Amino acid sequence: MEQTALVLISIMNLLLVIILGVLGFLIYRLFQQKLPTQKQPETTADPNYHPDIMIRMKEMEKLKPKRSDLFCPNHPDEPGETTCAICDRLFCKACIRPFKTLHFCKEHLPLIMKNDWEEVFTLKTSTHDPEEGVRLYDAKKRLFEDKNIPTYVETHYKINVDQDYIETYLVVYSIPENTEIVRENLQ
Q1: 115-187 in CATH: which number?
Q2: Pairing of strands 118-125, 90-91
Q3: Which residues cross the membrane (predicted)?
């Protein structure tokens, strides 16, 4: 009787191991089949972002950066790490230089150092319309690409300690002779 019970327990343990093995294999196959075909979550359904940002994220999903845009234009084998504050292109560590709080490529660093720059436009950013800052950077980039007018943007912060609040300002700087053109294009 004892031997029969031991045999039955051994058979049940063996069946349990086989069932768990088959179940584990099926779960593995299920996950293996689903992973490549899983879709990214829809960005438009996320209520945590402003609707304008959601539209921009949707547009960005359609764009794939060209390989050349991700690497330094002077050293095609080196990945771009930092953007120039004037031309917005990515450069490797060897081709970019810090100046004050920004970085400039070797081509535009002399431009920054030799010229006087004046504040042209200030934008107070807000959490209600964060897309406004993106539009400012896009307009700055178009000015350089279309009209070859150099500008740069500094971010300034104002800390209100009493109300525990930080205000953020984007300040656009231009060479004095381009000030009016820059103002017209940024309005």
Answers
A1: 3.30.70
A2: unpaired
A3: 6-31
